[in-house]
Prior knowledge:
The chain has eight helices and 15 strands. It has helices spanning 8-17, 25-45, 68-82, 150-153, 222-232, 248-258, 277-290, 321-336; strands at 55-59, 65-67, 87-92, 99-100, 112-120, 131-139, 162-168, 172-177, 182-188, 193-198, 209-211, 241-242, 260-264, 294-296, 316-319. Strands 4-3-5-6-7-8-9-10 form an eight-stranded mixed β-sheet, sandwiched between helices. Strands 12-11-13-15-14 form a five-stranded mixed β-sheet, with helices on both faces. It starts with 7 loop residues before the first helix and ends with a helix.
Amino acid sequence: MIKNTRTLGEFIIKHQLAFPYSTGELSNLINGIRLAAKVVGHEVNKAGLVDILGSYGETNIQGENQQKLDVFANEKFIQALDNREIVCGIASEEEEDFIALNSSDKKNNNKYVVLIDPLDGSSNIDVNVSVGTIFSIYRRISPIGSPVQLEDFLQPGKNQVAAGYVVYGTSTMIVYTTGDGVNGFTLNPAIGSFYLSHPNIKFPKKGNIYSVNEGNYVHFPEGVKKYIKYCQKEEEDRPYTARYIGSMVSDFHRNMLKGGIYLYPNSEISRDGKLRLLYECNPMAFLAEQAGGKATDGKIRIMDIEPKELHQRVPFYCGSIEMLEKLEEFISIENNN
Length: 337
Ligand code: AHG
Ligand code: MN
Ligand code: MN
């Protein structure tokens, strides 16, 4: 039996009507993402049956091995957004440069740009572990009618107008925000519709989960090492539970629902960490804050960072507010030593 009867489509319309001057373009954009999510979700679900598992045989701009599903998801999201004539440009983890859309002469009357990680956690595809898609939406800065520019993509996260993710897990879900709280929708695969299953999601102020790739522990900054030891100490409500899937979308989703902290620090082996500011950290930071959580690079609020490059990496700490504050205490003590 379906408990929640409001579909994502109805939710989008209701929220659009709440803004008297809304042109419906953002709603249409989210609809494009909803469609691509279904197509990609369908492919992910049957991935073991068809010849779509495994490596595509090329490396992307980050030097990472592209999986076939990375390439498939990238194509589907770009197609879905291109068809709607709302978006003037897309930047993707899988593309070296941004793509100017919808115009042969590269001029463009559309006002939004989208940044995406089409398939997050792709090392998990071959082993039937949940993966995701992350998206981030901005209004362009350059004038409408002119070619889209790099500066349209290099905006701080605080300028985002919407952001979200799709998680292809035991069920497929879309979770997103337009700056008015966070809502989650679960796909009923029999009908092909997303239903509002998680209205107004809130990060618990504190949780008992810490999520970090501890294999890199020896390379972490001292403050982070000490925080991890704090998480493991038998005292008060600790030790915390360690949970790390290796798909940031899934790790974030669990932590937001249950309470927890996600850490991807800089280290001796990756000076700026691993995760990409524009299409991994900023959208998650926007969701985290909208749900009452927090996201920083250890010192600075993620959404205040002025981006310099499309594929820029940053250390990323995100989750329940009180856990983030504790981590920052450890980091600042080490920095002042
Ligand atoms: P992607 O598959 O888009 O390249 O992202 C992978 C990211 C993220 O999803 C995950 O949390 C992290 O990489 C895992 O990294 P480690 O394997 O270094 O822990
Ligand atoms: Mn990713
Ligand atoms: Mn990816």
